[in-house]
Design goal:
Strand content: 5-15%
Number of domains: 2
Distance between the termini: 50 Å
Radius of gyration: 24 Å
Number of helices: 3
Oligomer: single chain
Structural class: alpha+beta
Helix content: 55-70%
Length: 105
């Protein structure tokens, strides 16, 4: 029986617990250049569940990348501050510029 067990299908069933086909809330927001439509508590199909899982994985990787960039930039800012206190203005400027480049935004 465990060989045929589909963990993703079981998780999808749990995810859909207490939902309806149409959803319980629909929200539309618009701003200059964008519009968003949010439907809450609706029943997802397998394809949508798989897409949500893929997005969650991608977001996790993005969070790690951004955290590392922030850590590197912060270290370079501290280095720049120390150089500035030591009167090495040009070296401090270089450290600050490398810090900004590390963010790569």
């Amino acid at each position: 029986k465990w060989r045929r067990f589909d963990a993703d299908a079981a998780l999808l069933e749990l995810d859909n617990d207490g939902t309806t086909e149409e959803g319980t809330a629909l929200r539309c927001t618009a701003s200059r250049g964008s519009a968003t439509l949010n439907c809450e508590n609706y029943t997802k199909d397998r394809e949508e569940y798989d897409l949500d899982e893929e997005i969650a994985q991608q977001v996790g990787g993005l969070k790690q990348t951004l955290a590392q960039r922030l850590k590197d930039a912060s270290a370079l800012k501290l280095e720049g501050n120390a150089l500035m206190r030591a009167g090495r203005v040009q070296d401090a400027r270089g450290a600050y510029e490398r810090g900004l480049a590390a963010m790569d935004l």
